[in-house]
Please model this.
Amino acid sequence: MSKPQTHAFQTEISQLLDLMINSLYSQKEIFLRELISNSSDAIDKRRFEALTDAALLNEEEELAVTITTDKEANTLTITDNGIGMSHDEVIENIGTIARSGTKKFMEAMKAGKESDDVNLIGQFGVGFYSVFMVADKVSLATRKAGTDNTVVWESDGKGEFTISEGEEQAVGTAITLHLREDEKEYLEDFRLKHIINKYSEHISLPIKMLGAEPLDEEGNPIEGAERDLETVNSGTAIWARAKNEISAEEYQSFYQGLSYDMEPPLSTLHHKVEGNLEYTSLLFIPKKAPFDLWNREAKKGIKLYVRRIFIMDEPDALLPNYLRFVKGVIDSADLPLNVSREILQSDRDIGKIKSAATKRVLDELKRLAKNEAETYLEFWNEFGQVLKEGVVEDFVNKDKLTPLLRFASTHNDDASQSVSLDEYVERMGEEQDAIYYITAESHQAAKGSPHLEMFSKKGIEVLLMSDPVDEWLVNGLMEYADKPLKSVSKGDLELTEDEKQEQEAQKEELADITGKLQEALSGSVKEVRLTNRLTESPACLVADENDPGANLERIMKAMGQDAPSSQPILELNPDHALIKALDAADENFADWAQVLFDQAALSEGAQLKDPAKYVKLVNKLLAA
Ligand code: ADP
Model:
């Protein structure tokens, strides 16, 4: 047998281990959940690969996780007959390559969410290393299905691990923990059973432990008699059971296993569909957003099973991307077991399952919005931005999604997004024929924008939008209840006859000034004109009806995309003292023009290209 090779843990993993050993004190017991969950994944994988290569699984072999202890040696061993790992896979998976979640996990830990640390371990995929919370030495022996050699990995969790060749063993993985002096409780059967019951009851695989010692008729242990293995969990798939036989606690504990979320889900949707297309779906809408909600490529929350056999995770095919926060299981009775990702994408039955699942989630959200408005707003705060993607992406369900939207509004005192379009439309005045909104970089910038001045004077409500996705949302939305959506910072404003006449008169009066301003700002603005948008500010910038607008340009640039740069229109408030005082013959006129323009940009939240120059100009004019 060859000499063991020593490897160093990758730095990030070393740090992680250090953190595990030295700072995590609560609920160390979850290491067992992590190991069982890894075993369960490995068994799922073996079963799945055996669908295309029957040699990988012997018909008679029962797939299970076995837990044994040795009180003399002070060890706990978790064995599975899953897929196993090759030499290279062991090195890669355990020790050398940190998962993407490792760093994020440590950041979250350092942010000091003490009470949540245990959930974090599972969420971030750093589960295996939790063994070092209770063990001072760990050895893992594994044989990959379809191969003959055993690879042994060993470590004390302090910087290094060794890899060597092991003795022949059955396919699968055995992990032996040498327990720390003060962690001997994990040698006790009742303690282990309690943990299994708490965390792994719903793993749909048997978890086995040695049963009681066989006794003779007088109740004495029989010498040399072996203890039998007993299954200690129910091992059945919860979704396959009848709804009325499942308690809320059981649902929650299953949900926890899927999500690592300690809070109960907001909604549990369990449906058995029979008829031409048979399947069961068990979906959970969480209360809190996971850390990677923004990652559209993150692992999706729905697991696909075919007749209780796990087929794949993250199939986009089962729910649209904008519902990626929904967790759960879909188990189909009709799909072929060897279904591939490609087939899934185009399968008609899957398409039907997907639209039914989408409908169930949206109907549930509608119900919440209607009957439990406050709960719905809490949901919206967590997931609203993702749901907005749906309005643009999911044409079929657009009409279901739109009434679910909530916005901040000039009618609210705070920044909360709580106004629905229905509410807005109901409040609209007789003459108002559009739904007005403003998009800006922040709520503050939206709320403080000069574009709102006339609207607030006239008492017209404006929706305040400051999420980056809002620009796409309004483009996709266009109208609601036959009312067009209109940006307050684009195009012309509707005027009454009186207002028109007054403006005509002012136009003539100020023709000289507007002309000179346009000259001074040529290259920066498309046009200079009068407005009645403003009551307090001297000037503002507006986009032409069909131009993208400054906010969208900013967002596109921030995303590294080419933004079609369009020049804004500078609008002047003819009633403002500053405009009235402008003198076309003033020698500083060009400076005044520049300051007016920069101020208008500033007030809508833009960054000046040359702030220092602006300050200099203002100082110069102040001094004069
Ligand atoms: P995660 O399970 O979240 O990926 P872990 O740190 O727990 O993270 O495990 C790392 C990897 O090691 C797993 O993704 C898997 O590839 C492999 N692994 C762990 N335990 C087993 C096992 N019992 N059988 C086969 N592979 C395993």
